[in-house]
TrEMBL record:
GO biological process: nucleobase-containing compound metabolic process
Gene3D superfamilies: HRDC domain (1.10.150.80), Ribonuclease H-like superfamily/Ribonuclease H (3.30.420.10)
SUPFAM superfamilies reported for this sequence: HRDC-like, Ribonuclease H-like
Domain of life of the source: Bacteria
Name assigned to this protein: Ribonuclease D
Residue ranges of domain HRDC in the record: 235-315
Organism, scientific name: Saccharopolyspora rhizosphaerae
GO molecular function, one term: nucleotide binding
Region (Disordered) location: 1-21, 313-334
Amino acid sequence: MAVEAASPETVGPGRPEPVLLTEPVDGVPPVVDTPAALEAAAEALAAGTGPVAVDTERASGYRYSQRAYLVQLRREGSGTVLVDPIALRGALDPLVPALTETEWVLHAASQDLPCLAELDLRPARLFDTELAGRLAGFDRVSLGALVERLLGYRLEKGHSAADWSRRPLPEDWLVYAALDVELLVALRDEMHAELQQQGKLEWAFEEFEAVRTAEPAPPRAEPWRRTSGIHKVRSPRQLAAVRALWQARDDFARERDIAPGRVLPDSSIVLAAQTNPKSEGDLVAMPVFGGRQQRRRASMWLQALRAARRLGNDELPAASTPHDGPPPTNRWADRDPAAAARLSAARAALNQIAEEHSLPVENLLLPDLVRRSCWTPPEDLGVPAVAELLRSKGAREWQIDLTAEAFAKALATTPDEES
């Protein structure tokens, strides 16, 4: 059943009152949690027409993994399908041929594609409604905001932050999950028309393909340095304690599939590193560590702290984060005035282009690409060479067409010209 834009009553001068959507149009389907039900769902989806709306629910904040605990699918002629990959032990093979040649519609696809790939579900074509909203220049691009703006419906506040690993899943959670795909294809059609009207449809297709084919980000070299509050830790020895506690927590959390923050808060890691307790009594006298769960883990935390204390000076971590990029931009004027001039000129030029085309400037060129290029510009500042530089760093053709000439000019800026 196709979903059409609502016809809400007008409240005030020209302001439509959105229609609250509380139930899926076809009701909430039973959760697919057996091989037989999965085969039937795959057949239904294969018999449908048009794009398929796709969403997932994870248990971020509750579980260590980012696996999907529910997969939602909806297609014209097929209805909504709610699949439990946990009950099916991740074996969703029947869905692969049913979805292979179909355009997938997701909202913020980069968040869902990794956990779908873990289930061997990968789109051949993609339409990302959030990214489409950004390219269209909309100031609010959440699913709820776009549905309200373009379709005239209001979605109820949902359960996105819930523990989706819970079983059985409550009925109101399933309603929320089904509604997340209820309007996605209709929203896709409206966004398609909007982008076409703005002359940005081909840009969007390039962006969707970049998201679809993006390689997974490499692991961070020192992920423990992202511990919240680590800026309070001054000495290398204390940093070693943070590292040891973080690694002990990470090993424990991974083994039990628990979100690390639920094992031990970052603030407690920082406090223990600063306080350096020598005994179990000292440790459990500290906030959080005195709780029942932490008392049982006290020996693990003490062992980590002792290991950090035994390290030689040459084994301690560096005081600052090692990186291969340029320094913070607020130091450029003193360290390299020419680079600062290039960056100022580049930002001004890119902001002007973004404003002319109603685009977020970060969607025009990645800020990190701009900074690195301005700090260490190429020897050849001709437009073709700069265009090839942008291409080699992952810029799409539409971005290159819009920015290469202005960016080349900015990279040739001198401090005297900038002032």
